[in-house]
Amino acid sequence: xSFPKQIxxxxxxxxxxxxxxxxxxxxSCLSIxxxxxxxxRAHAEDPQTELQQxxxxxxxxxxxxxxxxxxxxxxxxxGEPDPENASFVLDTRAGIRMGGDSGKAVVxxxxxxxxxxxxxxxxxxxxxxxxxxxxxxNVIADFRxxxxxxxxxxxxxxxxxSPQKKSELAIDFEKEREFWSFRPLTxxxxxxxxxxxxxxxxxxxxxxxxxxxxxxxxxQAADRQTLVRRVYFDLTGLPPTPKQIQQFVNDPSxxxxxxxxxxxxxxxxxxxxxxxxxxxxxxxxxxxxxDINLTFYNAxxxxxxxxxxxxxxxxxxxxxxxxxxxxxxxxxxxxxRTQNIVATGFLVMGAKMLSERDKEKLRMDVVDEQIxxxxxxxxxxxxxxxxxxxxxxxxxxxxxxxxxxxIFRSTETVHGNRLNNQFVSGWMTRPLPIxxxxxxxxxxxxxxxxxxEAKLKTDSDALxxxxxxxxxxxxxxxxxxxxxxxxxxxxxxAWKESAYSKNYLGVGYVHDMNEEQGKKTIxxxxxxxxxxxxxxxxxxxxxxxxxxxVPVNIQSEQGMQTVYVDQTKQGPIDGIxxxxxxxxxxxxxxxxxxxxxxxxxxxxxxxxxxxxxxxKLPNQxxxxxKKDEAKPDHxxxxxxxxxxxxxVKSLKSELANLKENAPRPAPMALAVGEQPDPADxxxxxxxxxxxLGDKVDRGFLTIAxxxxxxxxxxxxxxxxxxANWL
Length: 726
Hints:
Layout: H1 5-17, H2 22-44, H3 47-72, H4 93-98, H5 115-120, H6 137-148, H7 173-176, H8 202-213, H9 224-236, H10 242-249, H11 256-265, H12 268-281, H13 299-311, H14 316-325, H15 334-343, H16 359-379, H17 398-409, E1 411-412, E2 414-415, E3 426-427, E4 429-431, H18 436-473, E5 482-485, E6 490-492, E7 496-498, E8 509-511, E9 521-524, E10 532-539, E11 550-556, E12 559-565, E13 577-585, E14 592-596, E15 605-606, E16 608-613, H19 632-660, E17 668-670, E18 673-674, E19 681-684, E20 692-696, H20 719-725
Helix pairs in contact: 1-2, 3-6, 9-10, 9-11, 12-13, 14-15, 14-20, 16-17, 18-19
């Protein structure tokens, strides 16, 4: 008899601790195992208990599970298996356990293998069911409990065999091509008509032939005034002026109508009017239309390309090739190259959810939109249905859809991010050709810009570090004399602490927030070691926006004296101190210095006050400080700071001047490009990119391929071959 592993582990661990206990532990474990086996057999052989458990499981299913299935699932997954619903039915025990295309839906006792649980939990790697709204948490918990119970289910019935999908039945493309829209173009015989004097061309004969078959006759020819209005509206979208109407009505030429048509075809309004019809097909807009609706700044270039194509009567074959693969076409000059690149904006246009966080889904959504517009615009067919299933009406299997998907997935359309937001993707833009002298000017500008920016960064970093080092060097304890920091001063009113400016003493300074003028004071009271004359210095980080006339009151043996300080400039001593003068003070705390914001305009900033004895203190070897005296190394550092400040100021000026006189940037266009790793794509089961099936070679629609289509180059996306095929 083998023992449970956990019992063996107890025995082994105990044996390492105390060998003398081995016999006792072995017998104890053996007893436990025997009791467990006996109890288990007794429990299994109790028919009453087993019946009660089974009945409890059935009641749980009927009360908690079946009502949810009926309400949320039976509409799509009951009755006969439907290939469009994954061939999955769950109205019988056999059906819910067998599952559908993706595998077993319920595996009794196994939560991980039960795909139904993944679906109702809306697992991002699986299908979300119900698709509209996730079930409540307590309902999902019931399903988990039910599966752990063994998925008791009293429902009887067998699962019918799922009908084959259209793609599994091998579409008879030859038969499908008998439909009129899939037939090759032919030149039919021109029909004979009875009213032979009415037709002006062969098209009229076809129209008249059908009318005569219906025993109908054409309406009378429109008068010239009616005709000219129709022509103007049709070709320019605008009504003719009274003068233009009279000009046509009074034209005696038998070719007056033809001349009118030719003249209107030469107007720019013709391209604008008929170009708008194509722009509707191309889903033209000046923004992406969804989420935060970002502006397509260069969309107008594609719009103008379309208008120009109509006005120049561009051959339709070229019009197709340029919009699908213009960037891959040969060109003779920069103008032609520009036109070809701009034309591919056709594939960039359209509504896109650029803030989609699942970037693989965004990529496939863009591909789907490109396939859809290509089918609608160039083939008059809707292809998007085949993303999730074979087309319900047209002979388009999913394999054809994903053959095209491989082409467009190998095309770069969206990438990176915009607005410094990792979730908002950008769209592809490409520079257009420019003249050599313009390119040279841009290159020089970029070089100069990088040089200046690098130099500015170097000097700015050095200045910042040096100023930081200065503040570190000027610690309170290192200063001669007696220094009172703002933290030790007595404040009246609200003063805000700050360390924004780099040059300060201690841990920071305070300012009055430029508020409540006349209501804020800060008093510095020194504890002087001896009576005598002291120079008083006021420390503050001077800068723009500060008050230019800050009142400072000095209370000494000479009485109260007021000095006004300009804080818009840095202090002349060490870049931080301003001398207030020398005053006689008694020993101890008899005197003080008080700064207020009375009558000020601008921020009042306060850091510290220094009292420098102008005599030798008794019994102390203290160096007498003089007004402009500073440590030699610190003075050199201050000089270096001034040099760097001047350099930074000069470099900023140079940089601003360079940017102001910069050559105009190279024009950009919305356009697509080739992915560096073109590849075939796999079928996404039911359109789910996280459930991929077989790989499909890049290619074109089988139903529309009357002869062997060109092979797709493995080094390219296949857009060029698609353009030629179209």
